[in-house]
């Protein structure tokens, strides 16, 4: 574990990503109390460019609302969408992949055919269909993103379990009388957690991008301020007030870049093959 932290610390890209992500988390956690301006309140005339009005460093949007307030308050919602949808996807994908990989046979065939059913439809298109069936509220946005995100998790965990179930310590656990649930949860999954962590970090970034794409199409939650909602609300004035999409777009870009850099750093630190090659 210490060697893994040392390898992560030597990765400059991963450290830069960690700094950026920490800054975003601090803004999401402490920004609203420190900058309590209501992001929905009209404070000035519309379409004020950045740095042209006192007290409004990022200007105002089409309704005269403070863009900085929306950016700060939206950080919490965008991160929550990414994190919660990823956790839900892991709760679905990890058990499916673990059961398919450990038991094999008809269990593997049935669960993988079920997984392939979701993969036959492009994830973005499936998310649009799900939100069209339900309503574009924050709960259903998170649920839709989780539903389209779990199949890669199941396939990754299945591959890891297939390679781990024939190890000596698993056979020793079988001989000691442990049941299948105990072997999967105590022997197999703990040894696959590094790969799951790396994938989860990338899934959070993908979920943030997916929520922004849905909001751009008008399928975001109109009652919740998020970076995706800010971009979606300003899509009709993209040519005349470009900063209204540019500013939250940069926030999304930096957050996604940070998560991808951290994911690559974790992969270098936790992947045994890459670790041995680097040493």
UniProtKB/TrEMBL annotation:
Lineage: Bacteria, Pseudomonadati, Pseudomonadota, Alphaproteobacteria, Rhodobacterales
SUPFAM superfamilies the UniProt entry points to: MetI-like
Membrane topology qualifier: Multi-pass membrane protein
Similarity comment: Belongs to the binding-protein-dependent transport system permease family.
Main location: membrane
Organism: Paracoccus rhizosphaerae
Pfam families found in the cross-reference section: BPD_transp_1, OppC_N
Keyword entries, A-Z: Cell membrane, Membrane, Peptide transport, Protein transport, Transmembrane, Transmembrane helix, Transport
Protein name: ABC transporter permease
PANTHER family for this protein: D,D-DIPEPTIDE TRANSPORT SYSTEM PERMEASE PROTEIN DDPC-RELATED, OLIGOPEPTIDE TRANSPORT SYSTEM PERMEASE PROTEIN APPC
Subcellular location: Cell membrane
InterPro entries hit by this protein: BP-dependent_transpt_permease (IPR050366), MetI-like (IPR000515), MetI-like_sf (IPR035906), OppC_N (IPR025966)
Residue intervals passing through the bilayer: 12-35, 77-103, 124-150, 196-220, 241-262
ABC transmembrane type-1 domain boundaries: 75-263
